[in-house]
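TEACHING EXERCISE
Course module: macromolecular assemblies
Task: Read the component lines below, then compare them to the predicted structure of the full complex.
Student: A.B.
Group: 4
Components provided:
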Amino acid sequence: MLPLLQYLAVISAACFGVLLARSKGMDLIGVCSVAFIVAFGGGTLRDVLLDRAPLFWVAGEHYAWTVLGIAVVGASIPRLPADLTKWLHLPDALGLGLFSVVGAGIALQQDTSLLIASLFGVITGTFGGVIGDIVCNEVPNLFRPVTPLYATCSFAGCWAFLGLIQVGVGDTSAQWIAVAVIVLMRMGALRYRWTLPAPRD
Amino acid sequence: MLPLLQYLAVISAACFGVLLARSKGMDLIGVCSVAFIVAFGGGTLRDVLLDRAPLFWVAGEHYAWTVLGIAVVGASIPRLPADLTKWLHLPDALGLGLFSVVGAGIALQQDTSLLIASLFGVITGTFGGVIGDIVCNEVPNLFRPVTPLYATCSFAGCWAFLGLIQVGVGDTSAQWIAVAVIVLMRMGALRYRWTLPAPRD
Amino acid sequence: MLPLLQYLAVISAACFGVLLARSKGMDLIGVCSVAFIVAFGGGTLRDVLLDRAPLFWVAGEHYAWTVLGIAVVGASIPRLPADLTKWLHLPDALGLGLFSVVGAGIALQQDTSLLIASLFGVITGTFGGVIGDIVCNEVPNLFRPVTPLYATCSFAGCWAFLGLIQVGVGDTSAQWIAVAVIVLMRMGALRYRWTLPAPRD
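Instructor-supplied answer key:
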């Protein structure tokens, strides 16, 4: 299942990247660059840190063609709805959920411990969005003082995935349940402004 | 030819890094740091992503000595012309052109497809400048809403290089023509303010 | 000695990361994220650039548990002293010193030349702090126009370490002396505002 999940993750993240770049008024090449960075960033960091070669998008060329297609089509649509920033959240949440579970799953395949696998899930899930924010010169979501839960959703979903596998649930079911946990938790956090308490200093 | 092109690319990028750091009023170590980051950044990312070990600047120590020399000399010159930012553009364009072609050429040597090779050309060509801008706290050129063509020049030059090789032009000729395309296109874009249209939202 | 020095370095850097994140008012997950990034960043970059797999924190799980423990405890302390930024400097200086010496030592073990080993010392020592500053949206210490010596301390300490080994001093003594050089030089630079002259333009 991991290749399918990863392909869906790349598609979601590319859509998020296109919307993010367009909300900043970028040109065609800017839209393509941000789409590639957001769609490939997290998985690339995971592959480099786990020393997996070749990278997933070098091994399977369909990833690059898909992102290129989404970026070109997305940059060509003459006008997008005015409330664009609202529309960013769904593909962002889908990418977060899918990449987190894929990252934890691939780390497990390399026989890491559960804690390390959960870290790889969070890294893979959040890095694309973080680096997208950095290149767009935003303070990354992950590091703003008090924002709706983001990395927390990834972390919770990774542990749901790892826990379900430990108690004997099949891989495929565990993966889809964990993706649903992350996406729903993230959309709920945005809607109801769920935050973690910040330490008082 | 690739080692020679890469050495020229490192020299150009180091000069750009020194001028960039000095235009920000940095001290000796700041100048050295930015010179190393700009000169080694793109090629390092390429080598890591292609899993080439050791890195080009670990394998050949002359790269590090050359950058160190340029940085120390460049930081010691007592005064630079007031219109320093204008002088940044030529070594930046040279580094962009040389690194793009070297990146695409090295990726091809590792049997990547043409699309992936062109992506490695753009990554290698632009990453040094992008990370230089980030450490100097600028919004990277690549991601400013409407700026003269930058990544586009790299992309066009990489495809010129790959196309020329496909139609049977010798490697060396194809490399130099592609470098010339990128450098001239970048200098033209700066002079005549060529931009891509930004999508209207 | 290198594993012990590295473990102390991770502890120091994690404490610095916690204090840095709390001085920005971050929540629990933000504190954990910054602690992991600062504690693992430099060593991870070193391992990736030297193509050492698995990464030090994948090979030894005690690193991740230690950082997690420090972050959770550090985020739970209800109030920290008001002059928090002053307290940042000691763990930062310790992490700088320990990571620099570990980085140079591990590079040497891989038979790099002295210049390359010193570069790896500086990269390993400073990268965690630089990336911590970037995610907290500060201009990294390393690149502010005129600040008290930071990378310079790392550089001087690495050369002290390499020089002592060349003249026959034992590894352990050379390591501790170099760590002391870096920490004392950094604390002195902060206290007495030692800076390098910036080139006049």
